[in-house]
Automatic annotation (TrEMBL):
Entry keyword set: NAD, Oxidoreductase
D-isomer specific 2-hydroxyacid dehydrogenase NAD-binding domain boundaries: 107-293
PROSITE patterns given in the database record: D_2_HYDROXYACID_DH_3 (PS00671)
Similarity field: Belongs to the D-isomer specific 2-hydroxyacid dehydrogenase family.
Name of the molecule in the record: 3-phosphoglycerate dehydrogenase
Ranges of residues in domain D-isomer specific 2-hydroxyacid dehydrogenase catalytic: 6-312
Amino acid sequence: MKILANDGIAPSGKKLLEDNGYTVITETVPQDQLADAINNENYEVVLVRSATTVRKEVIDNCPNLKMIGRGGVGMDNIDVAYAESKGIYVFNTPAASSQSVAELVMAHLFGAVRFLDASNRAMPTEGAENFKGLKKAYAKGIELRGKTIGIIGFGRIGQAVASYALGCGMKVMASAPGLETTNVSIVIEGHGTVSVAIAPSTMEEVLKNSDFISMHTPALAKPIIGKAQFDLMKSGAILVNAARGGVVDENALIEALDNGKLAHACLDVFENEPKPRVDLLQHNKISLSPHIGAATVEAQDRIGTELAELIMAKKAELV
């Protein structure tokens, strides 16, 4: 069985597949040549992350395609229902990257409350001549402990963020459709696990009462957070989006930052990836990362291994 890992696969996953007789190709095929490559090279499995899309036209033009795998959580770049209606097995690895995304959220938060993004830009150019001035400018940070974080979307990643936040002494509020009271585990290495029950809140309650808001929802047809939602937030709140570009209205976000409603925003995802709008990238109240939530060595190893295991398990069913 030939596999095209068009957005790459960790060496651990590639080795596991090859050791079990699979051929794994990791050379990236341009999107407009994907269907031809699948047919010409007789690929039966296509693995993607966020860069490659597998839509109806690819599915219709590739009758020998048997599996589509997404390394990560969101599957909005795959026409899942349509593929499954054609008998194609579609799968992803929703748990493998939860911790890495959660750690990035916390890194952004720690950086935001202590102005690390701004001070890291200013110190190389001004530090030698204006050390005292910069010290004064960045000496009004706040602490996370004792503050409230509102988590919108409370799946595996949202719960992982809650676990880290609870470990930092924060209060956690959570909102998601149909959410019920959820037990969040805090693992203390060498000392066991502590479980904390998080009761559901409405979106309005989360927006009004949170010092920090972290987005963990799938991509939707329209933004979840727009001007009306920013208006409900506390003045001086900080927003983190490590979910999907488009869940936050970027025009409304810039307005909220410019008028002082938001103190800061932390963005790992953008509407127009891979070409985010320049005014976002250059805004002095936004800290940035280039969609690297799942991009840790450990997470990619877990994703690669899980993808390989899912392929092999499905192949065993088909034999």
